[in-house]
Amino acid sequence: MKIISHPHKIQKFIRNLKLKRKTIGFVPTMGALHQGHISLIRRAKKENDIVVVSIFVNPSQFGPNEDLKKYPRPFFNDIKLCNKEGVNIIFAPKANLIYPKNYLTYINVEKLSDIMCGEHRLAHFRGVTTVVTKLFNIIQPDKVYFGLKDYQQSVIIKKMTADLNFPIKIVTCPTIREKNGLALSSRNAYLSNEDLKKYPRPFFNDIKLCNKEGVNIIFAPKANLIYPKNYLTYINVEKLSDIMCGEHRLAHFRGVTTVVTKLFNIIQPDKVYFGLKDYQQSVIIKKMTADLNFPIKIVTCPTIREKNGLALSSRNAYLSNEDLKKALSISQSLNKAKKLIEYKKSVSKKSIILEIKKVIELNMDKIDYIEIRDADTLEEIKNIIDKKVVIAIAAYIGKTRLIDNIVVNPVR
Q1: How far apart are CA 363 and CA 178, in angstroms?
Q2: What pLDDT, on a 0 to 100 scale, did the predictor assign at position 197?
């Protein structure tokens, strides 16, 4: 039996098992194993080539007044039990490997997480679905086993798995009880009252372009197959989704990260490619991919422009010839700002923003924002000179919203 603590190591180990066509059964636990857990392990053992048990006391599912600190952690006894039952791998990560510094991405199954236990344990199921998603992405199992003692959790996990298109079968197993009928629980050792609480769609032209470029597969689902009736599960990368475009397009990035997560689970790619025109989106997707332990490399590619510098966009189709000339002022202002910084003619953030505004305000009907932020984290900055920064603009011509950006490296 192997005991692995690092997500990358277990991902690599399981990838090799999958290449040998081994099926993976997974039993997620918080440790303090009892006969209920053992029944799940035995079921997984019967149905799979390899059985993985995770032992991780998940801090994000405990409320501020709950029992995170005193939750039982008899780790060496758990190892003995797993070894006796023929478990192949124990995955026992430390909290900082699951929730590293600046972790921001959380999963929420709406409505279902707000009733019953969710009504009394605020954010509990958000913590459960987040860690389960991460474990799914780390372990990449074929089947996952849950006991029915927490019936609401099993319904939520099934819903999340279906909504996010995880290629995983959820197996629910009967509650195991004492002879007197008491349901087995790791917490039975210390029961207390607290413990019991109008976008363009030139589809045929797109097909021609893809065929010309040698694309192998086009995935073109209808909306009702991606968001079927009673869809409830959404992904949110906190903080990063609330600034810049997120401040003006409420829930926009929640929609982006949700559909991207679903597509990751459906396609199961090794690499995914995003253009840098939507710079904020690329930072959010990278953050989500890292936070949720997707075994995927995100590749960002430069913005492609017309010869005159206008960033290519599907929304450019909405613009008249006159509007297209006005739109040029955005890229022109960005280039001017970059030169001002590089030649140290202006090093003040406020003065750079004013210069950009001078160039674009006569051509735009509305300016959503002109922002200068840290290029890697999108954090606000004070000093432009010694940091790699992104200068980003969002503005309207008529009803058409245009975005563009430029990255400026530190001035030495």
Answers
A1: 75
A2: 37
- The closest alpha carbon to 141, from 288, 25, 10, belongs to 25
Residue-wise pLDDT for 111-120, tens only, equals 999 998 888 8
233 Cβ contact partners less than 8 Å away, ≥ 6 residues apart: 107, 108, 109, 110, 129, 159, 160, 163, 164, 258
Distance CA 348, CA 361 (A): 20
pLDDT digits (tens, 9 = 90+) for 206-263: 999 999 999 999 999 999 999 999 999 999 999 999 999 999 998 999 999 999 999 9
Question: 285-295 burial by CB neighbour count: b if 16+ within 10 A, else e?
Answer: bbbbbbbbbbb
| CA–CA distances in Å: residue 367 to residues 240, 393, 396, 400 | 20, 8, 6, 12
Question: Could you give the dihedral angle defined by the CA atoms of residues 311, 313, 316 and 318, in that order, rounded to the nearest 10 degrees?
Answer: -160
Q: Other CB atoms closer than 10 Å to residue 348's CB: what's the count?
A: 14
344 is written with which tokens? 């140290």
Crossing angle of helices 124-139 and 7-19, in 10° steps, is 50
* Residue 342 φ/ψ, nearest 5 degrees: -65, -35
**Cβ partners under 8 Å of residue 95, min gap 6:** 56, 59
Q: Tell me the helices (H) and strands (E) count for the chain, helix number first.
A: 14, 13
Q: The pTM is what? A: 0.78
* pLDDT attached to residue 377: 95
**Helix ranges, 54-202 (H):** 75-84, 95-98, 117-120, 124-139, 151-163
* Residue 78 · residue 56 · CB < 8 Å: no
Instruction: Provide the annotated active-site residues.
Output: 37
**Taking a C-beta distance cutoff of 8 angstroms, is the pair 163, 263 a contact?**
no
| Residue 193 pLDDT level (bands cut at 50, 70, 90) | very low
